[in-house]
Design goal:
two-stranded antiparallel ribbon, disordered C terminus, 509 residues
Length: 509
């Protein structure tokens, strides 16, 4: 019997209502420059010291190569599954499935952690406004329970906006971005001008980083900080022109580089390395209080709150659409492919993702050790991000290897740069795996235990392989025979009886 989606072919399509500006808003919100600067610069400084700006510049090079690979693949095959679809067709279905799986699991864990962080930032802001209790309940930003409860409210709000349509969500994100970037540039620009820490050209010299281990760990964290620009490619089936997604992602990525450099230099003009590491997640708040009196000193905290909200929302959107692409191929269950009849968004999948993130966040309150696990998972996501970015770039080099015969420019664009970017990220990941494996002589559920740091990415991959095996041998997904994802404009989805039926493909260029 045909599925409901097959009975109504129009429901298999997402609505094309977005343009370049919307892609920029989604990519920039997902990368969350203000949150990355406000929370992540202290972590980078712990490894790179005063060479944090150099590390950000160095990490940008392979990321730019990855972005160009995404753009090239997207021009040939626009699909909301992006890397999952491209890697599956070019390298193999198992690698492709793991690419989509890593994105799905990584984003759910990131949302669970970021929800609690968002709640804490909201509570800090309310405290700044003089509200310290509500209905007899103390609004303590350091309380995991209260922060998580507020974070769950934030998760519900961003889920509703994601379900009611990407266009509405991007309008909200654009206003949040305008506010937070105005505040960020104003305060960081003022810090560059008035800071009392002397500027040195060595800040831009990556060779001054202390050790290969510090360089590798810092590079992976920097890759994680850049993570999110590819969210623009998850809505390419909802853009009026597939090239709009590529332009949106590339514009956002270049803008992130500029903001990260301004932020890193500004922090180092105001704080010593020790102060930056000590302040850690409160570095942006410390910067505001150092440069301005109240109430102006609270503006960076308000910008951080807006960034956290936008990051939550923009992570819901690509995660649900990646799961939709996998469900169309029956590598995930049919629940993920149900579109809202009015808004045309993957509403059920969006709700499931929110529920999973909320469940993980609640469990973290009741199981103290799980807090350490989530923090370690966030750190370990850098390894898995490097894996799926590298696989996608490698897919570009493999698919367009014939460009090696078409002249130096095309060969450089389609093969050499993607392959070099992939090998760089694979090399970083392999080095860190070796470092983690040899840094500890016993297992302990602690964020500084190397075996525990390796356990989480290994569990992600093993669970993904088990799910892939179920899809291949139980669901008999045609994806595992052909490596080809369902087309964005396919009129029907494969049926149980004709799972191997060929699907129309776009013409490669």
């Amino acid at each position: 019997m045909p599925s409901p989606v097959q009975q109504d072919p129009g429901q298999t399509r997402l609505r094309r209502t977005l343009g370049v500006k919307d892609g920029v808003a989604i990519a920039a919100s997902s990368t969350a420059a203000t949150t990355s600067i406000g929370i992540g610069m202290g972590s980078l400084a712990a490894y790179a010291g005063r060479q944090t700006p150099a590390l950000l510049l160095l990490a940008f090079l392979p990321i730019l190569g990855i972005a160009l690979s995404y753009a090239r693949l997207n021009r040939t095959e626009p699909n909301c599954g992006s890397g999952y679809t491209w890697v599956g067709r070019s390298i193999g279905p198992w690698s492709g499935f793991l690419t989509g799986w890593v994105v799905l699991i990584g984003n759910v864990i990131f949302m669970a952690y970021t929800g609690a962080v968002t709640g804490s930032v909201v509570l800090q802001f309310l405290n700044k406004l003089g509200l310290h209790s509500l209905l007899g309940l103390r609004l303590d930003p350091s309380s995991t329970g209260i922060s998580t409860a507020v974070g769950l409210v934030a998760l519900v709000v961003v889920t509703i906006t994601a379900i009611t349509g990407v266009r509405a969500a991007t309008r909200l994100q654009m206003w949040l971005l305008i506010f937070e970037y105005t505040v960020l540039v104003a305060f960081c620009g003022y810090a560059l001008y008035t800071g009392d820490q002397p500027f040195s050209l060595s800040w831009l010299n990556p060779f001054d980083i202390g050790s290969p281990q510090a360089l590798a760990q810092g590079m992976v964290i920097a890759v994680f900080i850049y993570w999110g620009w590819d969210a623009a490619f998850s809505v390419n089936e909802e853009t009026r022109n597939a090239s709009d997604a590529a332009r949106g992602g590339l514009i956002a990525l270049v803008a992130m580089l500029g903001l990260f450099l301004i932020g890193a230099l500004a922090f180092q003009r105001v704080m010593s390395t020790g102060e930056l590491i000590h302040n850690g997640p409160q570095a942006l708040t410390f910067l505001g209080s150092s440069l301005a009196p109240e109430p102006w000193a609270s503006l960076p905290l308000a910008a951080l709150m807006c960034s956290a909200f936008a990051s939550l929302q923009s992570n819901v959107i690509p995660t649900a659409r990646g799961a939709l692409a996998m469900a169309r191929d029956r590598t995930l269950g049919p629940v993920w492919q149900r579109l809202h009849p009015r808004y045309g968004s993957p509403a059920v999948g969006t709700l499931v993702i929110m529920a999973l993130a909320a469940l993980l966040a609640v469990l973290a309150v009741g199981i103290p050790k799980l807090n350490d696990m989530i923090l370690t998972a966030v750190n370990s996501i850098g390894l898995t991000v490097a894996l799926y970015y590298g696989l996608t770039a490698l897919a570009c080099a493999v698919r367009f290897r014939s460009s090696l015969r078409d002249g130096a420019v095309r060969a450089l664009r389609d093969v050499v740069i993607p392959a070099a970017s992939a090998l760089t990220l694979f090399g970083l990941g392999a080095y860190l795996v070796w470092d983690y494996a040899t840094m500890s002589d016993h297992f302990e559920a602690s964020p500084d235990n190397g075996w525990f740091m390796l356990l989480l990415p290994a569990l992600f991959l093993l669970l993904g392989l088990a799910t892939a095996a179920w899809a291949k041998w139980v669901r008999r997904a045609p994806y595992f025979r052909t490596g080809r994802g369902t087309d964005a404009d396919a009129l029907t989805l494969p049926m149980d009886g004709d799972a191997g039926a060929p699907l129309p493909r776009p013409v490669e260029s």
